[in-house]
Amino acid sequence: MVYAGGSSSRGSRSEIKASRERSVECFHYVYSNHRTVKNGPNIGRQFYGCALWPKDDCSYFQWVEDNPCVFLEEKTNDKGNLVEQLLMEKKDLEEKIVKLEKKKEKMRAKIKEFRILA
């Protein structure tokens, strides 16, 4: 598995994810691979497996959510992303409201003009 590197003190998402993945070792004492189930009843579920699979498989297996630190960090990141997305949507809606209020005032002015002309 290739891990992102860099000199940033905060670290990018890929660097944080890579460092988190490196904290899980298979029975070969090699950093395990983070994989996703592609089919079957657990499709989409994430797990850690032997880093040397399939060539020299040590049968290491762990569901990601069974690693509480990783699972909670991912859930926290998901919630943070959701909050960020909702804040952006709120800002967009507020901008639309301002535009609609301006449009409403223009329409009222036109109605007044038509009443005066009538």
> Runs with pLDDT <50, length 5+?
1-11, 18-22
Query: How far apart are the termini?
Result: 77 Å
What fraction strand? 5-15%
- Give, in spatial order, the strands making up the sheet with the most strands: 1-2-3
Helix content: 40-55%
Taken in chain order, the helices and strands follow as HEEEH
Q: What's the number of extended β-strand segments?
A: 3
Rg (C-alpha, Å): 26 Å
The overall pLDDT, averaged over residues, is 78
Biggest β-sheet description: 3 strands, antiparallel
Q: What class do helices, strands and sheet pairing give?
A: mainly alpha
Identify the quaternary structure here: single chain
Principal-axes shape call: rod-shaped
Q: How many alpha or pi helices?
A: 2
Domain GRF-type: 26-67
Keywords: Coiled coil, Metal-binding, Zinc, Zinc-finger
Biased composition (Basic and acidic residues): 12-21
GO molecular function: zinc ion binding
General description of the model:
This protein is mostly helical. It has a domain of 66 residues. The protein has a 3-stranded antiparallel beta sheet with strand order 1-2-3, with no helix packed on it. The chain starts with 12 loop residues before the first helix and ends with a helix. The relative contact order is 0.09.
